[in-house]
Fold:
Amino acid sequence: MTSSDTSPLASQPATMPDVREADMICERLQRARQETSRIIFGQDKVISQTLTAILAGGHALLVGAPGLGKTLLVTTLGTVLGLDARRVQFTPDLMPSDITGSEILDEDATGRRSFRFVPGPVFCQLLMADEINRASPRTQSALLQAMQERRVAIAGAEHPLPRPFHVLATQNPLEQEGTYPLPEAQLDRFMLQIPLSFPDEQAERTMLLATTGTQEAQPQPVMDTTGLMEAQALVRRLPVGEKIVDAILALVRASRPETAPDDTLRAQIAWGPGPRAAQALMLATRARALLDGRLSPSLDDVIALARPVLAHRMALTFAARADGVQLDDVLTRLVNRLG
Structure:
């Protein structure tokens, strides 16, 4: 196991990770990634980024065309990580109570009536919100509270969600009719936005042969809830060097029009990421390092995660879009400034 940029900050926790404990956790994480890759073909980068989001304790938004395995990825991760996973198909007529649950009026044998809370599908450890942008803003708001606060409020009573709790939402960019674009406040709750692309020819050939026979491979559990929470706790104990903290701050602040480093960027960026983006990038870089078997993040981690963390937290001005500027071009310029 190696580490990089290990000059720790003075503000880092005094308790350093035990190397033997870290080795055991890294070995389990490697097996979890390999087991997921055995089921999902040609999406190794997507698998790693999704595991990074979960390991960092966050939520992820999976964006891709139909048939790329978004649903299969979530169900596979639920099995591999030993999580209670559920799926909700978001539709325009979906009500908030269909997600969070509701109270019903019960009557016992004596005729006494009382309200009883019936939990909704959000009371799980891994929730797949399928086609999240098809739900109404009212329903999206109900999920927003659950994602941010890890609890729901029904009839004045608060109900905590199970731990850990993660939302993996999917969004189909090809279907625009009948959709409700996610507001900036909800997009900001997703730690990573992960794009899915088509697999290469060899991966698609392997998938074709493996999934059209009489039997399909089934995922096997590798971790459990306790093991995952131990790994998540370890992520927060990893030391981060001054160089990495400076890079994260420089990148996030350069992505805002108020603090952009030059006039061109200020004219192109309409709004940029807030402090939550810096927090997300800090945790995600730690999680990526641990997933790769390292005890501290490097500059490569910051560069690799810049787009998934920042892309859904930024918008271009109308003038920039009229000139044909793409958000990816702006992000490339910002990342290149890191060296």
Q: What stands out?
A: The longest strand covers residues 101-107. Confidence is low (pLDDT under 50) at residues 1-14. The chain is about 45% helix and 15% strand. The radius of gyration is 21 Å.
